[in-house]
Design a protein that fits this description.
Oligomer: single chain
Shape: elongated
Radius of gyration: 24 Å
Structural class: alpha/beta
CATH class of the largest domain: Alpha Beta
Order of helices and strands: EHEHEHEHEHEEEEEEHEEEEEH
Number of domains: 2
CATH topology of the largest domain: Rossmann fold
CATH architecture of the largest domain: 3-Layer(aba) Sandwich
Number of strands: 16
């Protein structure tokens, strides 16, 4: 869920963004502010992923506000003036929407946000430390999984299913990312879709590995590597 904050001194503009966000899933409005000072107070208390930010506001403009933030959230500027577009993009804004904002143009901005979030999840969703565990994101929680509990990891396109002794966890990640970071002495890639804990393998042949009652295929291109790893 992407947590949003709306900052605008025009009630009608706020209503439009609220209505548009209500038509799509995955976005939650955490706060609505009439000016940048109110927004600053919210950022001290809440985790905000995305700000829809008007530029021309009293006391402190949207651009000045962003410049005060050390680590700003993703920003979509909303304004009736084209003159600020260049400066807005120089601040690494995701997009710059001119009022009145059509729903079609709004959705293009949302698509940019979603793509940036996906890139961020692929690059930094898991923290694997020297400790014998990893943290993974699932729904709105971060779960701690001990490496010794993992039986195997299955690729499901842009997600992986981590099968442990007690449960299954699905998180947005590439299996290749985990293969690079998990010890080759503990895990072996047996197939393009499977990464297996070596100490959980109870039997194997030239075509399959077994983890108790579970059989997983050995891909042809992985065959010799798997057999060498298991024999070693």
């Amino acid at each position: 869920m992407i947590k949003c904050m709306l900052v605008d001194d025009e009630p009608l503009a706020m209503e439009v963004i609220t209505a548009y966000l209500g038509k799509i899933t995955g976005f939650e409005i955490v706060a609505k502010c009439k000016n940048a000072l109110e927004a600053f107070e919210i950022l001290q208390k809440e985790t905000i992923d995305l700000i829809f930010l008007d530029i021309n506001m009293p006391q402190l403009s949207g651009i000045e506000f962003v410049k005060t933030l050390k680590n700003p959230p993703k920003i979509i500027f909303t304004t009736a003036y084209r003159d600020y577009a260049l400066e807005g993009y120089e601040l690494n804004a995701v997009d710059y929407l001119l009022k009145p904002i059509s729903f079609g143009r709004f959705m293009k901005a949302i698509d940019k946000v979603q793509r940036k979030v996906e890139e961020q999840n692929i690059n930094e969703p898991i923290n694997i430390s020297a400790e014998p565990f990893l943290y993974v994101k699932m729904d709105k929680r971060v779960l701690k999984i001990y490496l010794d509990d993992i039986r195997y990891i299955e690729s499901q396109k842009d997600y992986v299913k981590i099968v442990t002794i007690e449960k299954e966890v699905i998180t947005k990640q590439k299996i290749s990312y985990l293969e690079e970071r998990l010890s080759s002495g503990q895990f072996v890639r047996v197939h393009r879709s499977y990464l297996v804990a070596i100490n959980k393998i109870t039997a194997f042949s030239s075509t399959n590995v077994e983890i108790n009652e579970i059989e997983l295929p050995i891909g042809r291109s992985y065959k010799q590597f798997v057999i060498d790893a298991l024999n070693y």
